[in-house]
Amino acid sequence: MSAKNIRIAILDDYNHASLKMADWSAVQQRCTVDVHDKPYATVEDAAAALAPYDILCHLRERQPMPRELIEKLPDLKMMTVTGGTHRTMDMQAAGERGIVVSHSMDRPGGSQGTPELTFGLMIAAVRKIALEDRLIRTGQWQSTIGFSLTGKTLGIIGLGKIGKRISTIAKAFGMNVIAWSPNLTDERAAEAGVTRAEKDELFRTADIVTLHIVLGERTKGIVGAREFLLMKPTAYIINTSRGPLIDEAALIDTLQNRRIAGAGLDVYHREPLGPDYPLYKLDNVVLTPHLGYVVEESFRAFYGDTVENILAWLDGKPIRVINAQYLKASA
């Protein structure tokens, strides 16, 4: 196949941003590029839509790529992913097929979006900004009383790169910061300038709990009914990490019955949300549509690297290959 016949699909570009955030002209001179702006609900739907393509460009982990789907795409030869990994992609299945998967680089400027949004949700939740915005449009004035972050205790679940950034911002607000994760030691917490707490202690004492831990088998559902019962009735929970870290049924029940003061959520078990999400009607939760990394700085880096990855593959010299071990094993 000549490069002229190669077809590329840019997936899940809800914002129609991909072609604006990088110069695709060199790629478009050699390939046909299509933008897909809607998610696919099932493997069958995705397979039907993506079967004609040789290259798929993923935005984060919006489109899962299990073995079942990869095996239904006979023309697929290369994929790009934004970020350092793609947890819902079967890298081994891709490697067995000889499909190269290239990733984008992690740049400091684009990694601030999630910590900043975390505090946006935090302030919006405790000061009832979304609710007051709705009420003032109906003529109601000063309907709620919030609280100041200064002097409050922030409990961080996961003290990695983002968690540490969160702690720095929290201290600028004058907050007391405690942290917990399964492997966090007193020494590592002290290095970040925070205090390590036991998990139960953190949930009992924190005025706000925020999640910044990697989703995996050990951490799925790490916050459930038990943890919500430990929290103060005046406390809030914020999640800008991954939806399945929280037991969704327990979260919905807790907020519906107002056992805690509220929540700020950017991530969910299934994305995008459907039309009947139970929390839509509640006034004690602020919802955003997974906006943490959705900032111009990140998108320019993501798509700039995507273009570089495609051009390198077209030239027979793939770069930033994330599934090299599986490619070698299948060679």
- Report the CATH topology name of the largest domain: Rossmann fold
Low-pLDDT sequence parts: none
Using the alpha-carbon principal axes, give the shape.
Answer: globular
Q: What's the architecture of the largest domain in CATH terms?
A: 3-Layer(aba) Sandwich
Class of secondary structure makeup: alpha/beta
Helix percentage range:
25-40%
Strand share of the residues? 5-15%
Number of separate strands:
12
Radius of gyration (Å): 22 Å
- Characterize the biggest β-sheet: 7 strands, parallel
Mean pLDDT: 95
Overview of the structural elements:
The protein is α/β, with parallel strands linked by helices and 331 residues long. It has two domains: 142 residues, Rossmann fold (3-Layer(aba) Sandwich); 175 residues, Rossmann fold. Helices cover 33% and strands 14% of the residues. The chain is built from 13 helices and twelve strands. Helix 5 crosses helix 7. The two termini are 21 Å apart.
